[in-house]
Amino acid sequence: METVRLVLLIIHLLGFAALFGGLVVQAGLPEKTVNGAMRDGVGTAFVAGLALVGVLEAGDHDVNHAKIGVKLTIGLILLVLVMANLRKERIPQGLWVGLILLSVANVAVAVLWSSAHA
C-alpha cells in the first residue's frame, strides 16, 4: 500500500508541475491562454489527489479531513476555472494571476498545514 501511495503522490506532484509550468511559461506573453499542460496537469493532480486520499483512508495513515477539504476546494476551483476557459482564445490577466495564486495556495496548504501524511 505504501508503494501505491508514493506512486500516487508522484503523479499528483507531476500534475501540479504541469499546471504550474503551463502557467509560468506564459509569464512573458501579452496574451494568456489555457494550454494543454494546464488542462492535463490540473486534471491529473485532481484525480491523483482524490485517489491518494482514498489510499490514505484505506491504510493506517491519519488523514486531516479539514486540510483535505481545503485542498479539494482549491483543486476543484482550479479544475473548473481551467476547464471553463479551455476553448477561449485568451484569458484575462487577472484570471491567469488567480490561477497561479490558487496553485501556490494549494501547495502551501499541503506543505505548511501540520500533518505528516495528509
From TrEMBL:
Native organism: Nocardioides szechwanensis
TM region positions: 6-25, 68-86, 95-116
Identification of the protein by name: Integral membrane protein
Record keywords: Membrane, Transmembrane, Transmembrane helix
